[in-house]
Amino acid sequence: MPSDVFAADPFLPDLYRVGKVRRELADAVTLELEPQSGPRPDFRPGQFNMLYAFGVGEVAISMSASARLGTGFVHTVRNAGAVSGALARLEPGATLGVRGPFGTGWPVVKAEGRDVLIVAGGLGLAPLRPAIQDVLAHRERYGRVTILVGCRSPHDILYQHDLEEWRQRLDVTVEVTVDHAGTDWHGDVGFVTTLIPRSPFDPDKTVAMVCGPEVMMRFAASALLKAGVPASEIHLSMERNMKCAIGLCGHCQFGPTFVCKDGPVFPLDRISGLLAVQEI
Amino acid sequence: MQDIRPDTSHVVIDAHGLQCLIDALSQDGRRVVGPTVRDEAIVYDDIAGLGSLPRGWTDRQEAGRYALERREDEACFGYVVGPHSWKKFLFPPVETLWKARREDDGTMAVSRPERPADRFAFIGVRACEIEAIAIQDRVFEQGPYTDTAYAARRSDAFIVAVNCGQAGGTCFCVSMETGPRATHGFDLALTEMIEGAEHRFLVEIGSEEGRSVMAQVPHVRADEARIGAASAIVERTAAQMGRHLDTDGLKELLQGNLEHPRWDDVADRCLTCANCTMVCPTCFCSTVEDHSDLANREAERVRKWDSCFTMDFSYIHGGSVRASTASRYRQWMTHKLANWIDQFGTSGCVGCGRCITWCPVGIDLTQEAAAIRATPGEGRS
């Protein structure tokens, strides 16, 4: 056995330093991470990292800004458990561990020449934002671009500054709906799937990218199929418990697939049979 | 089944020769592990020689039943398989992946543990267990990422196989085409032969390293009669299988019956105790635990065996994906017998029967598969 057998130990994290921290929602922050040594690896929209909080653990978090926009990683983290809570409390200058990038990405290149339909539920907008940024960076390569966002309430709308910027462009359609709202909300109320039938896209030449809670993605997939988008052109980002991200721990199995290496982004035609099964 | 051909790759040793073999491996700096009797079972642990082996013992196995019994002879390998497998050495139940240290200024450093020192010699590896090791090799070494600590231990391991002289009540290696003869993946393969007072082992040499170790062990050449007699022992074992699993189209059968009522039926019996996954020689699922000292300066990341039968296994914010027992048993069995084929190009089952023997309520996956085969396509009521 060569002595460099440990040279590429995939369990070992690289060290990154927290740069800017931006509070997005009451329970979510966006962290900008810069490598402590060497260049950040390249990555594709939709891929994820394992972020390690000292002494607490690792959690899988998607990149939430395009690789072209900086020299580090950007992650939006919601305080939903011990590890994500510790990450959400990190302050500028803190060190954390990063392994990645892992997994499949959104079909941003494959979507060139076609209409692009983004459907996000809640924090699901975070993994989609790098795809939106890359599409808009080469806007002329795409047909119609539509961004549909659904949130629980107006207080849960992520990246309001980005949504406003995208809305002001004449070449992007942005629709936001909330599940429930007070009288000061003048936008749509209802599930994000209700926006699909009235959105401007040609189902025969559309690539749809969907991310949100699994139940939301199931309904969105149904609505997109009903609108005539082929299953092979509908892409979902799945979530399962994940310990290693490298196909060794077994936790993220979703039927015959491993979400960490076969996903997280799957074309619907590959997983539609599994999506219909409870507790799979 | 292949014939064992009479050539220089076969020699004969006696019980003293077996002790010499263990000594030679030990003197080579290896950690020699093999079968030994402990807590009324035959387990795998460090052995010093013949005295450590389960001489004169056999095991009787049925669904949910395991008992040791005395044999009429002094066979060293006259049992089938126990609750342990070699996985506990190559893929330890608890292993530190790395340690981290945090300084006052908030910076952090990560260090990996020293390379594991153990160069193992495994004594008494059954054909089904060789296949189980090969299956874990595919998981840990042949995917997009390699578990480097596993790979180091694995490449150093010296394997002394034993061809099975008898089958157990829960064995079905013939169905899985993994035994009872070791045909590859060993350095040496023994067939134990006892006739009256004569106690001999036919040794098949499977590697150059095996050949050089045998040069240190007193032996004689094997004649054709001896090789033929050894073959007959293994053939007799193949005819004794306690269980049978029909693997024809099994992957499609299970993947096409995810809503079969049998999953609810087995859930009424299953305790979700995870015994089947702990004794399985191929189950590879693990979790990680993070610890730190009271000052929160030193931390370590420890990997531990995990089981798809626990609630925590599938937990994501909001709850467990697989909350019901039916869904967890379905996950285990469809993974083992069906999805594994999609993932790794081979079944995850080697037919060793441990999951049947060590299930406290005697659930038998060969019966569960047969029940689904008997009424395929049924939906859940």
From TrEMBL, chain A:
The cofactors required by this protein are: [2Fe-2S] cluster
Q: Which residues form the FAD-binding FR-type domain?
A: 11-108
The record, for Pfam families, names: DHODB_Fe-S_bind, NAD_binding_1
Q: Which residues bind [2Fe-2S] cluster?
A: C244, C249, C252, C260
Q: Which organism is it from?
A: Novosphingobium malaysiense
Enumerate the SUPFAM superfamilies for this protein: Ferredoxin reductase-like, C-terminal NADP-linked domain, Riboflavin synthase domain-like
Question: Its Gene Ontology biological processes?
Answer: pyrimidine nucleotide biosynthetic process
* Name of the protein: Ni/Fe hydrogenase subunit gamma
Q: Which GO terms describe its molecular function?
A: 2 iron, 2 sulfur cluster binding; flavin adenine dinucleotide binding; metal ion binding; oxidoreductase activity
Q: Which UniProt keywords apply?
A: 2Fe-2S, Iron, Iron-sulfur, Metal-binding
Q: How is the cofactor bound?
A: Binds 1 [2Fe-2S] cluster per subunit.
